[in-house]
Amino acid sequence: MAVNNLLDTSTVSLSDIIGNGKVYKVPSYQRDYSWNRDHWEDLWTDILTILNGDSIHYMGSIVLQNKGDKKYTVIDGQQRISTLTLIVLATIKTIQTLIDKNIDKDNNIERISLLTKKFLGDKDPGSLTYSAKIELNENNNSFFQTHLMVFRQPLNEKTLGDSDKLLWQAYNFF
User: Buried (b) or exposed (e) across 32-62, using 16+ Cβ within 10 A?
Assistant: First the structure.
């Protein structure tokens, strides 16, 4: 009789998680985005620790349910995955600023293209519609897709719901 692993654990990098062609969906029952400045600073400190040291650093757990065809439901870790995606978005925005200043323009255009395809999603060549690698819960996904993923500032930040406001603040923090 074959043994079936109910819990498959491994240590992986950001590239292994969201840079791998997989698509993630945060189910509607998961809480809205709730991380604040303290969480963002802790995560950023963790990232700097990894960059500055020779050791592996544990940044927390992510629990996924495999739905097949490289599609996963995020059971735990949605705050972390969302925030890591915001860091990628902020990085792309910073590179775009360099392009706008005509700094290493061709290479930076290529960097944005590679980062976008690897970590955020891709455009369908036929319809030119964007398909993101992550879909947040029903309360956050609309703002995430229509503003953050396309670098569009909200018309009035004061009208945003609390969790969308936190997403916007996290993006700006990074």
Answer: bbebeeeebeebeeebeeeeeeeeeeebeeb
pLDDT per residue as tens digits for the range 112-137: 999 998 899 887 777 766 678 999 99
7 is a domain residue: no
- CA Rg, the chain, in Å? 17
Domain assignment present for 3? no
For residue 149, list its beta bridge partners: none
Question: What total of structural domains would you count in the chain?
Answer: 1
Alpha carbon distance 47, 80 (integer Å): 12
Nearest to 25 by CA among 83, 87, 67: 67
Q: Is 74 helix (H, G, I), strand (E, B) or coil?
A: strand
pTM (whole model) above 0.85: yes
Tell me the three-class secondary structure of 11-64, residue by residue.
CCCHHHHHCCCCEEECCCCCCCCCCCHHHHHHHHHHHHHHHHCCCCCCCCCCEE
Continuous segment of H or E residues that includes residue 122: strand 121-123
- Alpha-carbon distance of 127 to 130, in angstroms, equals 9
For residue 9, tell me if it sits in a domain. Answer: no
Domain of 147, in residue numbers: 17-173
For the chain, report the end-to-end CA distance as a whole number of angstroms: 50
